Amino acid sequence: MKLPRYMTLRESLMAADLDKVFILINKKDSNNYAACDRPSMEQTVGSYTKVVQELLSKPRVRAYKYPWLVQESLDPFNHKKYADVCYLNPSYVEPAEGLKPWGGSKGKKVPKGYYDANNSKCSRTFGVGFTPWSKIVDTPIINEANYSLERVVAEILWEMTFYGWTEEKVKTKVFEITGKLKKAQKEIKEGKCVELPPKKKGGFTVVIPDSVSQQIIDITNKYAKKRK
Q1: Which residues does 173 contact at the CB level (< 8 Å), separation at least 6?
Q2: pLDDT, tens digit, for every residue of 180-221?
Q3: Angle at CA 9, nearest 5°, toward 75 and 127?
Q4: Residue 198: which H helix or E strand, with range?
Q5: Among 139, 160, 162, 170, which has the minimal tally of Cβ within 10 Å of its Cβ?
Q6: 193-196 and 206-209 beta bridge pairing
Q7: What is the mean pLDDT of the chain?
């Protein structure tokens, strides 16, 4: 079954064959590198049945300001197509042809030949990971990839659960990540960071906050101990 134009996530969950949805999700997870991240079919069904039940139990709300978008994108590393689940920005304005993205600090003048990548209007899509489930269950889906209904539902559910299996767990994870980002930003502002120069002229400078450097060191030391 193809996804009818602008069907909401709630409507899609109610109309889809969930057995097929769970099979598709399990197939995606079977490609995970670590064996512990490759669940059995029984585990997938158990986990995602609860996810669907929670979503359908949410009170009806107005559609989120950004509609769901399911499209096919090209992986910049292996150059293979993949299912890209995101939000479509209705206010998107395409930058003038020939301009390159610039992500400098707020308040600084955009260099000639670049456009401000921090301006939300210059982003056609936004990531979905940090949005509360209760806000997007009645939001319509634009299926640019022309996937089947079950494939669309599978891709959305898989993306939504990246940070947790319940809305509360996602909220907790987002709070944790946001805290780390604020700490990193503070360290950069205070000069507590390492700057790696661009590999080529016109490239970007990589800035690594001290807290991130310490995490890398801790992970490396932990791995080294296991190898001994």
Answers
A1: 163, 164
A2: 889 988 988 899 988 888 888 767 788 888 888 888 787 777
A3: 35
A4: none
A5: 162
A6: antiparallel
A7: 90
As given in the structure block, the two tokens for residue 88 are 């479509």
Q: Exposed, middle or buried, 209 (CB in 10 Å: 0-12/13-18/19+)? A: buried
Q: In 3D, which of 197, 170, 194 has the Cα closest to residue 184?
A: 194
- Enter the tokens of residue 55: 């979503």
Q: Where are the beta strands (DSSP E) in the chain?
A: 68-74, 81-88, 100-102, 114-116, 125-126, 141-143, 193-196, 206-209
Residue 16 tokens, joined: 């889809």
CB 27 within 8 A of CB 44: no
User: CA-CA distance, 70 to 32, in Å (whole number)?
Assistant: 21
Q: How far is CA 217 from CA 105, 171, 176, 223, in A?
A: 28, 28, 20, 10
SS (H, E, C) 52-79: HHHHHHCCCCCCCCCCEEEEEEECCCCC
Where would I find the H helices in 68-209? 133-136, 149-160, 167-189
pTM flag (> 0.70) = yes
Summarize pLDDT for 116-151 with one digit per residue, the tens: 888 889 899 999 988 999 999 999 999 999 999 999
